[in-house]
Structures are given as C-alpha cells and as structure tokens.
Write a structure and sequence with these properties.
Elements (H helix, E strand, L loop, with lengths): L2 H4 L5 E5 L8 E3 L9 E4 L12 H6 L4 E4 L2 H6 L4 H5 L2 E5 L2 H12 L8 E6 L4 H14 L4 E4 L3 E4 L2 E4 L7 H13 L4 E5 L2 H5 L8 E6 L7 H4 L2 H15 E10 L3 H8 L6 E6 L6 E9 L2 E8 L2 E7 L4 H16 L4 H10 L8 E2 L7 E5 L4 H12 L6 E5 L8 H13 L2 E4 L9 H9 L7 E3 L3 H11 L5 E5 L6 E4 L2 E4 L2 H15 L1
Parallel strand pairs: 2-3, 3-4, 4-5, 6-10, 6-11, 7-10, 11-12, 12-13, 13-14, 18-22, 19-20, 19-22, 20-21
Antiparallel strand pairs: 1-5, 7-8, 8-9, 14-15, 15-16, 17-18, 23-24
Helix pairs in contact: 5-7, 6-12, 6-13, 12-13, 14-15, 15-16, 17-18
Length: about 500
C-alpha cells in the first residue's frame, strides 16, 4: 500500500520525501523492521523509539513517523539512506500509528460488529459470555482479551489485554478472513491512554465498574476514569450503544456525561436500571435468576457462580440485545457459556472442600471473591494471596485489611514481585491486617500446600491474584508457575498421604 493512503486521517505537521512510496508493513520495534516498513518512533515504558530511528532505517525502513525533530537530526542516517527515506513529523506518534495501522489493514472494524468492554473488573468474563451468545446465534465471534485472542477456531497468545495498534488491526483483519462477523474486545485503560484502538469503529461499548487499580500508571482515580471515558466519548460510533452498570458510582457519572446520538442501556441490581436481575439463587452448581428488561422477564441459568457474574451476565446480555440478538438466543448463550480460565475456577481432585483459583488482584475483586465464597458454604474460608511488585503500592494495605477481615484464615505470599523484594511487599500487606488470623509464606507453592492442609470438609480454599497466568515473575525473570496445577498437585498429595 502506498504511504499516502496509509497517512489518510493522520494529523501530520510535515512530510519530507516521497509519500507515494510503497509500504510493506508497520513496525514500532526497530528489531522487527523489514524492507519497506513504516517505522513509528513511539515512547515506551523503558525506551524511546526515537533513539532507534537509525537502526530502523539501516534495516530497510522506507518511512519514519516521529514527533521529536531533534532525534531525527541526530539519528545516524547516511545521505544515501536519507535520499530514499520519507520522514513524517506528527504531534503524537501513538495517535498516528493507530490511524496508520487502521488504514494499512483496510479499516477492518468497518466490516465487523465490534463491541468493547472496559472497567476494572469483569471484562474477561463479559467478553467470553458475549462470544458464547453470538455463537449461539449462529455467527462467528472473535475475541481479544487478557487470556488469549481468538479468531474463528484459531487461538493466539495474548502479550497484552489489548495489543498495540498494528497487532490489534491485524488481528481484526485476521478475524474477517476467519469468517467472524462480531468481535468482543477487552479495552484496557492502558490501551485507551496509549490510543491503541483509536480509529476503530466500535458499535457498542460496555462499562462494568471502576475501582482502585493501575494508579501507578494513571496517578489518580479521576485520571483513571477519564481514560476509560474515552471509549464512550471519543471512540464509540455516533449511532452506537453504551451499556453501563449504574450500580457503580463511576457508571452513574459516565451516564450523566453521555452526549446525544449514542443509545444507552443501563444495568444493575438496583431499581431504576433498564436491565435488572432479581430472584438470584447462587450455589456451587451455578446461578439461577430472572432478567427484567423494560417490563419483560426472562429466566437465566448459568454454570458461573457469584454475584459478580450476575453483573457480567447482565452486561453481556444487554449488549447482545442492543446488537439485535433474540432473547431466546441470549438465554441459550448464557446457559452454554462455561467457566472462564482463572475466573472463580474450581479445582476438583476428589477433596471434600471447594478449591478455587481467581484472578482477583484489586481491592474490590478480592472483596467480591471472598463474599462469593462465603455465600457458598457454612465452613471456613482460607485465602492465599499476595500483591504484584512494581505496581500500585497503595492497594496493598487495604487488601491486607479485606483479606483478614473477611476470611477465617489468610496465607500471605508472593504474587509477581518483579523487581521488588517479596518480603517488603508482604510487610506492606501485613500492615493492613485487622486480625492475627494469618501466616506469612513467601514461597507461593508452599503457601498453597499449607492452605490445602489447613482446609477441612465444607471449607473453601481461595488462591487469588494470578488466575490464568502460567508464570511467576521474580527478580525481573519469569519462571513457569500455574496456580491450578500447583493447587491440584497439593490436593492429590494430601489425599495420597491420608
């Protein structure tokens, strides 16, 4: 594709060189540049792409998008290379990359029905429910999210919840090739802040909730909210649908600020919402409840457990209804949707107690997890958890308070300490403990084994924080670690020893 076609809608300050040159790909990592690529000099967490312009050109880049003129002036580019190079100066490299990628992959979202889900908790399960409902309707649905990307029958690894713009648009194009008509996308706050999905046509957007998380990146809850708000104010199509949880205070704030043109459907458990759940029956066998939508009632049955999943089901049902899915099909899709890996996932190896792994790594998610478990048993709750390193330290104290207050016993351990000291992280969690009903075991595998040995019949063991992850990051290095495998092995060892 010619560069001038790729640059449509890209806000440029100046273009030096031939904009008619052919472009074979888009890269933002100079190590991945091939002959004829457009290189975009974005700033990352640890490095600035402007420092690698010379390397990108040496590897065959035909054009460079940049926003720092001094970096181009000082780049090691030979006169011969400069003669055939097109330099595009822009005000914002990330915004430019998003629109360039959208054009390069021939605006794939315009040929799909794309629904974005944002919020602190519930995004993953909501997208899987949406996929199940759409497929019950006889359509093919793609999925982009935390656990994996799915295009038709093919599964791809997910290095980010929402990938960078070139990978995001390429995945949408792959979904079209795979026969997908609909796509459910987890839209993270990082993706919105870094404009990874700008240029995408969203037909619908869902707001699940907003609680403390990622403040190491956003700084304040207000900044965090305003970042999430971008999906609804700037990226949702003028005739799109906004599906908003109005039981959440930030959902009500979002609703109050919605402009004209966008159609809104509210959901929740409290009166006043368009879509409500009533008569909720929650058990270890799943959920049964009624969905009331503007005067009509539907009976829902799901293998998922817990009040948080009632909200997730309402969100998925609401957006599906907005997109024209018949209610009979929506109810079938809810019933057919299976538990999502690492989201209140039961581990059964023949033990007499309930064992669960969950991705809960925020204050709100941990609290909801323990409350969900409490509603399933008259026994004790044993919670194993830690907090990630190099992330928002402010939530550690509160999570320590929540765990010790709501659990019968807690084992404080490591999550992904990354470059931080595991002991230091645990001490910051321990400072929030409200009771001395805990012990400290930094070795996560040993902590899980101890929880299994403590548990008695009808108790619940909760292993929180990592969910689907298959690694543990310690000292900046990743080691193979899977909570489910470790928990199942510990249970089998316990049974064999008995």
């Amino acid at each position: 594709m010619r560069l001038k076609e790729i640059l449509k809608e890209v806000r440029t300050i100046s273009i030096t060189g031939d904009a008619g040159t052919e472009i074979s790909g888009i890269s933002y990592d100079s190590r991945k540049v091939a002959e004829g690529h457009l290189f975009v000099a974005i700033r990352g967490d640890k490095s600035d792409g402007h420092h690698f312009i010379g390397d990108a050109v040496a590897r065959g880049a035909a054009a460079v998008i940049y926003d720092n003129p001094e970096a181009v002036t000082s780049a090691c580019i030979t006169p011969e290379e400069r003669a055939s190079l097109c330099l595009i100066r822009v005000g914002d490299c990330r915004e430019a990359m998003a629109y360039a990628a959208n054009n390069f992959f021939i605006r794939p979202s315009e040929a799909l029905t794309v629904a974005g889900v944002t919020g602190t908790n519930g995004k993953t399960t909501t997208t899987y429910l949406m996929k199940s409902i759409i497929e019950s309707w006889g359509r093919k649905a793609g999925l982009i999210g935390t656990i994996q990307y799915m295009a038709g029958d093919k599964i791809y690894s997910a290095p980010h919840t929402t990938p960078e713009a070139p990978e995001f648009q390429e995945m949408l194009r792959t979904m079209i090739s795979s026969g997908c008509t609909h796509v459910a996308v987890e839209v993270s706050s990082h993706a919105l802040a870094q404009k990874r999905v700008d240029g995408t046509t969203f037909r619908a957007a869902v707001f699940t909730n907003l609680t403390r998380d990622h403040l190491d990146f956003h700084g304040t809850m207000d900044n965090y909210f305003r970042t999430k708000e971008r999906l609804f104010r700037e990226l949702l199509g003028s005739n799109g649908f906004a599906v908003i949880n109005v039981d959440d205070p930030y959902g009500r704030r979002l609703l109050a600020g919605m402009g004209g043109g966008v159609r809104v459907l509210t959901y929740g458990l409290e009166s006043g919402s368009d879509l409500r759940a009533t008569d909720i029956d929650n058990s270890s066998g799943g959920l049964r409840f009624k969905i009331n939508m503007r005067g009509r009632t539907y009976g829902a049955v799901s293998p998922l457990m817990g009040l948080p999943n009632v909200y997730n089901i309402l969100a998925a049902a609401g957006v599906s209804a907005c997109l024209g899915v018949p209610w009979r099909t929506i109810i079938d899709g809810i019933r057919n949707s299976m538990a999502v890996r690492g989201r209140f996932e039961k581990v059964d190896a023949g033990q007499g107690f309930l064992a669960v792994i969950d991705y809960a790594h925020t204050e709100d998610a941990l609290e909801r997890l323990i409350y969900t478990a409490r509603g399933l048993t008259d026994g004790k709750i044993v919670t194993v958890f830690g907090c990630g390193g190099d992330r928002d330290r402010g939530k550690r104290f509160t999570m320590g308070s929540i765990a010790t207050r709501l659990s019968d016993f807690v084992i404080l351990t490591s999550d992904n300490p990354r470059s931080e000291s595991p002991r230091q992280i645990i001490e910051e969690i321990e400072a929030g403990a409200t009771r001395k009903n805990y012990l400290v075991e930094p070795d996560r595998e040993a902590a899980i084994r101890r929880a299994v040995l403590i548990a008695r019949e009808n108790d619940v063991v909760l292993v929180a924080g990592k969910g689907h992850e298959e690694y543990q990051e310690i000292g900046g290095k990743k080691f193979k670690f899977n909570d489910r495998e470790v928990l199942e092995r510990a249970i089998r060892q316990m049974i064999n020893n008995k």
